[in-house]
Design a protein that fits this description.
mainly alpha, 6 helices, about 85% helix
């Protein structure tokens, strides 16, 4: 009787060890599948962030901004406020995207925002007090055509696009 009990106990212990091994193996497989899903999900979120930032860069590019918000029947100071306010709002709307992109990519977007606001403010300040919004828009577009800073939005878009393609 004792030998039967020992054999039963040994078989029970062996069964437990085998079951434990199978369960552990299944958990490891499930974790690997979960990691792959998390990696894919993370990459997808990063790609979406780059996509949104490229759209942001396009929306705050001064030529695009002027054509989108430019109203002819307003003064230069009102136009200055409208342009800088739009840049600020677009940037703030997308500020959370910085957690998904590289520090360099985010810095380039931030620099573009600051540069565009600086250009608008500086050029608005050289206009006479009675200047129109159309005068400011013309001055901005002339500046952009003659200055390399005018293509900064294109450079930033290329940086973002390059980084996004590295993820694919």
């Amino acid at each position: 009787m004792e030998s039967t009990s020992v054999i039963t106990i040994l078989l029970l212990i062996g069964g437990i060890i085998i079951a434990y091994g199978l369960i552990t193996n299944q958990k490891k497989k499930a974790e690997k599948v979960g990691e792959k899903a998390t990696d894919n999900s993370s990459k997808q979120m990063q790609l979406q962030a780059y996509e949104r930032l490229i759209l942001l860069v396009d929306r705050i590019a001064l030529p695009n901004l002027i054509s989108r918000v430019g109203k002819t029947a307003m003064g230069a100071r009102d136009m200055q406020y409208l342009l800088t306010q739009n840049i600020r709002e677009e940037f703030e709307y997308n500020i959370t995207q910085q957690i998904y992109v590289s520090a360099e990519a985010w810095s380039s977007v931030k620099n573009l925002k600051e540069q565009n606001m600086l250009i608008v403010n500086q050029l608005a300040n050289v206009l006479p007090p009675n200047a129109t919004g159309l005068d400011l828009n013309k001055l901005l577009l002339e500046f952009l055509m003659n200055d390399k800073k005018g293509t900064l939005h294109e450079v930033v878009s290329e940086v973002l696009s390059y980084e996004a393609k590295k993820l694919m």
